[in-house]
Design a protein that fits this description.
Number of domains: 1
Strand order of the largest sheet: 3-2-6-7-8-9
Order of helices and strands: EHEEHEEHEHEEEHE
Number of strands: 10
CATH superfamily: Cytidine Deaminase, domain 2
Structural class: alpha+beta
Largest sheet: 6 strands, mixed
Number of helices: 5
Bound molecules: zinc ion
Helix content: 25-40%
Strand content: 25-35%
Mean pLDDT: 95
Low-confidence stretches: none
CATH topology: Cytidine Deaminase, domain 2
Distance between the termini: 15 Å
């Protein structure tokens, strides 16, 4: 059943699958890759309507790990302005099954705004990924709240369509 109140991130199933395929392809299954997750300013703030890949903003950022150049944020703000979107989260891949944050991940939120969501996907995004395999982390200002496994699954809503 769809539990609207619990889900922190909502995505159309086709968008979710396309995003994972894209993340896997961009990292060539050997490097981490990632993206910002945007929602329409006027719509459901949890429904991801646009995915902006890190390497489209900073072409040199995929170095095994991700080293995103802070100067590339201006391009992200341009997308937000032009498409009337706002950043509500980000996603990046890890090798293997570990979807907890690294010390570097936790110390460096991509957007240090309370409520910002960071998803971590396993296996460099090189196969389709179910919700319970994802790590979901919410920035609470200074520290993070994290969910994995069944608790992560509850907080990600994937549907064919949303109203
Ligand atoms: Zn990481």
């Amino acid at each position: 059943m769809f539990k609207a109140r619990r889900s922190l991130i909502r995505m159309r199933l086709s968008d979710w699958d396309a995003m994972i395929a894209e993340l896997g392809a961009r990292g060539h299954c050997i490097k981490e890759s990632g993206a910002f997750l945007l929602a329409n300013i006027d719509g459901d703030p949890r429904l991801i309507s646009r995915v902006v890949y890190f390497d489209d903003l900073d072409p040199k950022c995929l170095k095994g790990g991700i080293h995103f150049d802070g100067r590339a944020y201006s391009k992200l703000w341009d997308v937000c302005k032009n498409e009337k979107c706002k950043v509500v989260g980000d996603v990046h891949t890890h090798p293997g099954t570990q979807v907890r944050q690294s010390i570097i991940d936790a110390a460096n939120p991509m957007i240090a705004q309370k409520g910002h969501i960071a998803l971590i996907l396993p296996d460099l995004g090189c196969h389709s990924i179910a919700r319970y395999e994802v790590g979901i982390h919410r920035y609470d200002g200074g520290n993070w709240t994290s969910w994995t496994g069944r608790e992560a699954k509850k907080r990600i809503s994937l549907r064919r369509r949303f109203p």
